[in-house]
């Protein structure tokens, strides 16, 4: 693969992952009561534990997107 192909690949991967992160954030923000009700029934967790789990999920997704998608794309763009 050439540098141009890798840059394009990481650019589109970044776009897709950032879009998924935004949709997950919006979904959890708008549908929190439904999600809490479902996850409480399925996993027997209280609301505080679920809020922490949602926050950790979004934080980890953001970190992985930045480290594995955006940083390589940015590094390739600077080359």
UniProtKB/TrEMBL annotation:
Keywords: Membrane, Transmembrane, Transmembrane helix. It holds the Pfam family DUF6868. It comes from the Bacteria. Residues 1-79 form the DUF6868 domain. The chain crosses the membrane at residues 12-34, 54-76. This is DUF6868 domain-containing protein.
